[in-house]
Write a structure and sequence with these properties.
There is one protein chain. By secondary structure, the chain is mainly beta. The chain has no helices and eleven strands.
């Protein structure tokens, strides 16, 4: 099994910054693509950012230029640096990891961390 644990969420004023972290542990031979998603109240979960094992990133248009995803492969960590936060960034942020073990691939999710941006 693979466990993902997010941390770093909280309450911040508009214009502020937060850095989310996601640790990956368990039966892991490789960690391939990783991603951040978020879900606002009453809305569907949406993709925020993706990052490949080589560090290539893609972002939702709504966060481009404000959010930066990164990862530390030796430490099995994923990060999301969020700047110039807006109230519409409020939501539960989830990390997702595609991992390999024993010739199989697995998709795992964290439990989420709450981000609240006040106006």
């Amino acid at each position: 099994q693979v466990q993902l644990v997010e941390s770093g969420g909280g309450l911040v004023q508009a214009g502020g910054s937060l850095r989310l972290s996601c640790s990956v542990s368990g039966r892991i031979f490789s960690i391939n693509d990783m991603a951040w998603y978020r879900q606002a109240p009453g809305k569907q979960r949406e993709l925020v950012a993706t990052i490949t094992s080589g560090g290539s990133t893609n972002y939702a248009d709504s966060v481009k230029g404000r959010f930066t995803a990164s990862r530390d492969n030796p430490k099995n960590m994923l990060y999301l640096q969020m700047k110039s936060l807006k109230p519409e960034d409020t939501g539960v942020y989830f990390c997702k990891a595609d991992t390999g073990w024993g010739g199989h691939e697995y998709v795992s999710w964290g439990q989420g961390t709450q981000v609240t941006v006040s106006s």
